[in-house]
Each structure stands twice: as structure tokens, then as C-alpha cells.
Amino acid sequence: MAELGKTQTAQAALGWNARIATSLMMICAMLASLMVAPLRSAQAAGLSTIETVSLPSTSMQLFDYWGAAQEAPDNTPPTSCNAWKSYLTSGINGPSTLNSGGVQGEALKFAKDLKWPPSGCDLGNWGSNATNLSAGDSVKQGIVQAALKDDYPVLNGYGDASLSYLFNPAVEHEGRAHYEVVGANLFKLDGNYLKYNSKENFAAYNTTTSQFDVYNKAAVQTGSNVGQFFPFNTADQVFTNGEANNISVTDAAINHYFGLGMLSTFTQPLGGVVGGDDMVFDFSGDDDMWIFIDGALVLDLGGSHAPASGSINFRTGQVTVKGNAGQIITSSSLRQQFSAAGLSPPSGWQGSTFVDGTRHRFSLFYMERGNYQSNLEITTNLNYMPAAHIQKTDITGAPVKTPAGSAASFDLYNTGSDYDITGAQARNIGSFSTDDDGAIAFVDKDTGAQMNFGLYPTSYFVLKETASPPGYALLLNSIHLRFIPISQADGSVIPGSGTLNVVNYYETGMESSFDSWAMPVNSTMYRWCPGESGSAGYNGNTFGRCPAGVQTAFTLSDVKAMKALDGSAGLKAVVVHAPEDHDVDFPDAATQRADPDAAGS
Hints:
- The protein is mostly beta strands.
- Strand 23 (308-313) and strand 24 form a beta hairpin.
- The chain is globular, with a radius of gyration of 26 Å.
- The two termini are 48 Å apart.
């Protein structure tokens, strides 16, 4: 494990391939991309990392903040008034030349024991105020405004300063370093829920893998309790002989000041329910934590405070914030929170919650700046959905690396059935450029939400390459795409569902596939009708059922050990069958090929 202490040239190719991965939404299952992070070897007997999952369409960034110097211990406050003033305008707290609405330096301060300066030392103009002093068992709401500005929180007062300097990797600022968390792999899968709890699992950021190493034991003491979240400390620092050692939150080795930003997209499921449970997002921890949905502040747990909790119920729309003693601080609804921000979701409301099948942008901003405890617990079954995306590859299938200034660019059109981008029905609906890995995600540039191809006037789309990386020719033929909704047997369309299909593969080399994860409603899955065609138990008629005796049940744990017919490891495919109350009769293959619009195709 890498320790982080406080201490193409492009080769010309004859052709290129590309791949579109599309999301498939079904009423009976929650679908999302899933990658399981591998177990890492234990440091000592009994200590090991646990399996975590990577979230689809999710960006997670981790930030290390400091005042005097990155390597300097932060557990000892300044001892003189002048030293305090210097510290409160240095590093992440500075610069000293900045005045933020009456506060020298930045308005938000990262400091230990700010409420206990030397006798006679007035630090009011240096940030000794309610925004930065401990809120105790409560929280300090209203630090940030009710709506994001340019995708980041903005302070109430203090010159309406943006917090982009804390959470935007592209913004330069002293006293800050940022690290991408590949796959946002902090969470373990527990039934239908994604969970992280610092009281159960210590998490350390690994600079080699750019992911979290999440351990099977908690670490770092506070009083008689063990279990803190300090991602820039290593397992070697907090475990001894496979067990949590005596290191405490006041130890000089603990790196206190940090932030975490998480940006994702989720879909409101039918009735706000996932796998029979209300869809929820539950948070407990300290210090500042703000959640915005579609730019509106929904959960406000601002301030330096003892562990507090916030909960969003997406079935009822209920939003609740509680203090450390369990007292209700605020009780509202999604609709009320949006109203306070002067915003409304594009599709309107379904009571006090979102309309079924709509997609929403989720933004979380979390910081530890009080220099004592750092508790973190998140439990959610949010319906994370992968956005349709395209990845440009070379003739061997390897992604075409596209560093800044040499990206491939594409225009996307919604057209008539003739795929004519100059036709009367055609309109440009977006322009996209590939990232460093040659990939682009089809997301709305204004809202950040995944593009719902079922909401456009027609189901026909054209993707035209407008610029190609050095050494690669432009694609001669534009890519023709068709969105085919998922239909039930009676012809009705399941809202928000469908597949994006390439219709001119032989002219473009473009093929479509799926990046999707079916989360079962329980821990048992079924291999239905095993065997090859003509063998016992095989049923090629999609209208039929296999005899109960040939159904083979297996658990998710069994999946990891399964062998394919060719002897290779891993699961090759899963067929998801809807429960009886959402049954779908699929036509035979010939009908599906002849008529893609046939019910059930």
C-alpha cells in the first residue's frame, strides 16, 4: 500500500472502433455499473481489506488541506496572538491579502481551539465567529446559500465567496492538494444498500491505486470509542499486529483537515422504492456536510459540530436533520427545500418528491475542519444509473488516449428517420469531447444529468465526429443511432427505459453494449433453464417456464467462484426476469429482428 503521510504519441491506424454503453432501466431491478474492488493482503493475521463497489457515473474527489505546511502536525494550536493571526491567513486559510467580507483571509477557517485564543487576543476579524466556532451538539445551518453557483456552494455573506477553492480541482489555492477516488469505491454492498461506517471500517486512501483501502476493522480512538474517518492516515499508523492501536484523534500523526466531494446522477424509481424499500440517503458525521440535488440545498449540516445526522426519503420526500442528542433541528421536504432555493426540477413534482423515472444530479460536499473527531456513516440505496457513453479505441480495441488539446470531438443530432442532419426535423442537441481515456459521457451540459434519449421528438440520432486526435483520420461516416424503448406485452412503454442501438455498424465500426449492474432484491439469484439447445432442461421458448427441478439457485458469493463452459472464471451473463406483477412477454428472436418496435422487443 502506498503511503501518503502528512508527511503517445498516437499511432496512425487504418480504422477505429468505438463503443456505446447504454443504461437499461427496469421497474423490477436497480441497474448500475458495478465493479468489485479486489481484496488486498492483510498486514497481519485478522486484518484485511474488504470488498467495495465502484459507483457508475460518479466522480469522487478527496482533498487534503493545511495551514502552515502540509507535513506539519496540526494538533497544536498557535500560542501567541500574532501566531494565531498568521496561521489564520496562511495556507488554506489565506492569503493574508484577501479580505472576505470583513474576515482576513478566507472566511471558512480550519483551526484547532479557535474559541480559546490567548488572553486579550481578539480574533473576530480573523474568523473567530459562529461560522467557525463549534456548534456543539447542534449544527450551523445557513453557512452556504440555498442554491449552487457554477456547480459549487456559495457562502451567505463574506462577499458571497464561492467554495470552489475547496472542492474544484481546477482552482489553484495554497494549502490544498486533491486526489481522485477512482470508482468512488468507499462503499460496501449490504443487501440492497451501499454503506460506509467509520465505526466498523477504517478507510485509507491509496495513492498507487487512487482508491480507498477499506479495512475489516475500525481504528483511531476518541475517548473509549474506536472508529474515525481519517483517509490520509495509513493502516501502518493506526493498526499494530492486526488490531487498532492506541492512536487517538489528538495524536500529532493524525491528518485532520480534509474534504470530500461526490458528484453523481440518480434516477427516481417507480414509487420511490428500490427492492421493496424506500429509496433513502442517510448521513451521520462531522463536520460540514451539504447535499444539493439539481443545484438546490437539500441537507444542511454545516459548521464544526459533534456527530449530527441527516436523512432524505425519496418515496415521501421527507428531509430531516437531527443533532447529536437525536433532537430534530429541521423537518422539511424536497419540495420545500427546492422552493427555498427558488428552483424546481425540470419534470415538476409528484407530491413532495420527484416524478417517477426522472433523473437528478446529486452533489455532496463534506469537510473535517474542527480538529477533533471525524465520524462518517453513509447508508443509501440511491438508484445510481450509468450514463450512455462512447469510447474511441484504436484498431486493436485499446482506448485512444486524448490528452488536453488533442481530444476527439463529436456533435449529436436528433433527426428524422432518414438520419439527415440537414433535414427539417434535425437539431443539434449537444457537443462532446473525449476525456484522457478517449471516453465521453452523454450528459446534459446545463444540468449534468444523463441524457434521456426517450424524451426527444424522434427516436433517431446521429453522432458526427468533428475533430480527431493527431494521427487519426476523421470518421468518414456519421454514426446512426436509434433509441428503442422497453415495452410491456400490451405495448405500453416503461417510463425512462430503453436501449440506444447502432444501425450502421458496418459503415462505422461502432457497436453497442451495456455497462450495467442488476442489484437483486435478495441475495439469491437463479440460473434459469441451464444447458445448451436440445439438452435436458433447455427451453428456447421465451414464453415458457423451466421445470422447477432444473432451476439452479446460487448466491452472489457463488458468482465469484463460477466457471464458464470454457473453464475461465467469472460470470458471463445474467438474465433478469421480472416478478409476476411486472411480467413481460418477449417475442421470439425472428420477430424482434423483423420489428424492433414489437411489444417486448
